[in-house]
Amino acid sequence: PHMGMLYSMFPTMILHEVPPGTHGYLESGWCYCEFETARLGRQLSEYSPDALAALGRARALEAQAGGDVLNLEEMASMWEAELAQKRFHVPSDADDVRRIIKAFAMKRMMLDAIETGDMDNLRSMMARLKGQNLVHSTLDQSVNAALETLLHVAVRKCSTAATQILLDSGASPTRRNLRGDTAAQCFMFPRCSRAAQLVRTTSTPKSAQGEVIGRVTQDDGAF
C-alpha cells in the first residue's frame, strides 16, 4: 500500500517508451501519478532528464533545481486540468490519483516548512491534513532515502517548535529510520537537543520523565 512512497524517496527513472499503438506515458492517469509523486519528491534529476526532455517536461527539472515554492491551490488547479485529459481504465481512479498527489504535496510542503523554519506554514498544512483525516498516515510515512519521518527531520534540525507541533498532532516518537534510530537518537545514542528531549519525554511513561529530563542537556545543539 505504500509503494507510491518509493517515487518520492529514491531517484526515479522514467521509462516513457511505449509499444506502437499504445497511448503515451503521460496520457496514463496512473503514470502521471507516479510522475507527480517523483517530481514532488525531487527525485527526477539523476536519471530522468532525457525522458523529461522527450516528454516536454524539462521545466519540472528547472523548478526542482530552483527550490520551487509550492502553492497548493495553484497546483490543485493544474492537477484538475491535467487529470481531465488522462486515461483511466476505471474512471473513479481519477479521484484516488487526485487524493494521492495532494497528500504527497502536503507532505512535501510540511518537509519544506520544517527545513526552512516556517512554523506558520507547518501549522497550516497540519490543519489541512486534519480536515482530510490524513494526519497519522502522513506523519508516519518516511520522507527520504534514510527512511526518516517528519519528526526525525524536525529533531535533526533542532527545531523544538516543529517537534512540538508534530508530537501534538500525533506523530509517533517510536518510528525508526534506516539505521534503526528513533527521532531522539543518532546512531543509537541519545541526541542532546531540546527537540530530542521532547520526543523522549513523549515516548516515556510519566513516572520516568523526571529521570530522563534530568539527564538531558537544555541547550539546542545537535548531537
Give a quick precis of the structure:
By secondary structure, this protein is an all-alpha fold. Helices cover about 55% and strands about 0% of the residues. Helix 6 (about 95-115) runs antiparallel to helix 7 (about 120-130).
Task: State the main characteristics.
disordered C terminus; mainly alpha; single chain; 2 strands; 223 residues
Write the layout of secondary structure elements.
Elements: H1 5-9, H2 29-40, H3 49-54, H4 58-65, H5 72-83, H6 93-116, H7 119-131, H8 135-139, H9 150-156, H10 160-168, E1 185-186, E2 189-190, H11 194-202, H12 206-215
Antiparallel strand pairs: 1-2
InterPro entries: Ankyrin_rpt-contain_sf
Region (Disordered): 203-223
Describe this structure in words.
The radius of gyration is 20 Å and the shape is elongated. With 223 residues, it is mainly alpha-helical. 33% of the residues are buried. It has two domains: 88 residues, no CATH class; 87 residues, no CATH class. The chain contains twelve helices and two strands, in the order H-H-H-H-H-H-H-H-H-H-E-E-H-H. The two termini are 34 Å apart. A two-stranded antiparallel ribbon has the order 1-2.
